[in-house]
Amino acid sequence: MMTKAIPWKAIRKLLGVFIIFVCFFFIYSPDSGKKASNKKSCKIVDYACRDGNLLKGALGDYYCVNESIFFVETSFSNVLTPRQACAIESTAHHNPSFQVYVLMTPIKAIDFSDSYIKIISTLTNVHLVHITIEDLVCGSPVWKWFVSEKWKKSKWQASHLSDALRFFLIWKYGGMYLDMDIVCLRSMEHLRNIAITENWERVASGILIFQKGHELMKRCMYDFVQKYDSSNFVANGPGTITRNIKAYCDMDNIGKISGADCNVDILQPAAAFPIPSKRFQREDVNLQNALDFSENAGTFLESSNQCRDST
């Protein structure tokens, strides 16, 4: 009795067709397409800067930035408040050799018909730049944090977005970051690798002056991403730099950091906070008498509630 031969050739052919069908299904099925489209990514723009690093605007504009001054408006507003305009104007006036970048995040576009935008636009060393945060931080640890949308859980979204951007900007470009309520009283052009303490217990994050690529700013940027707390207002800004400056300089006493060999200096509170916030809120405080505008005064003034003429 003859046994029938197994048709291996036909089986292999059928198996090959089946494998091709399975691959085709997974590659072109609607579900796989959705998964691919939901996976976010960013494209780093390949544009060579002779001096500095590239800063990409939202409208296809590019800037080669190096050791500049940065203000960041992260409330998605398309205009400036009087206090913000005062901060920008005073800084540009006292630091004419620096380029000042005002990075704004409007939903549509900056409103150049706004009266304060018009004033700031006349300053020759000021650049009003419409940015998209996702494109700005592409290629950095901050990008993953931003697209994760953890910041959307916060009650202080604008503040926490600016917390992330300040460490990124000064690490990548170098120069100075100033909060939008910081009025400049005199030139900062001689300052390098400077932070300011609020009360000798905590370092302020509203004024940062560091060289590009400074290790402290890099540590702050990574630490911010890893330990971000959407439920805490100050932990991500002052908390981040205070924790990291102590570790970086191996010094628990903030008052002694300037004497440590870590390429960081700490300015005393009077340099920017001449009136403690609790006293500032008292109605009986005479600002004109309380503030010192002499040559011995501090370089900055935090205009917590109103902007004063510093000239």
Automatic annotation (TrEMBL):
User: What Pfam families does the annotation carry?
Assistant: Gb3_synth, Gly_transf_sug
> InterPro entries in the record, alphabetically?
A1-4-GlycosylTfrase_dom, Glycosyltransf_32, GlycoTrfase_DXD_sugar-bd_CS, Nucleotide-diphossugar_trans
- Membrane keyword on record: yes
Q: How does it sit in the membrane?
A: Single-pass type II membrane protein
Task: Specify whether Transferase is a keyword of the entry.
Answer: yes
The record places domain Alpha 1,4-glycosyltransferase at 210-281
A GO-annotated cellular component: Golgi membrane
Gene3D superfamilies the record matches: 3.90.550.20
* Top-level lineage group: Eukaryota
Cellular location of this protein?
Golgi apparatus membrane
Q: Molecular function (GO) terms listed?
A: hexosyltransferase activity
The record's keywords, sorted A to Z, are: Glycosyltransferase, Golgi apparatus, Membrane, Transferase
Single biological process term from Gene Ontology: glycosphingolipid biosynthetic process
Recorded hits in PANTHER family, A to Z, give: ALPHA1,4-GALACTOSYLTRANSFERASE 1-RELATED, LACTOSYLCERAMIDE 4-ALPHA-GALACTOSYLTRANSFERASE ALPHA- 1,4-GALACTOSYLTRANSFERASE
* The family this protein is said to belong to: Belongs to the glycosyltransferase 32 family.
Name of the protein described by the UniProt record: Lactosylceramide like protein
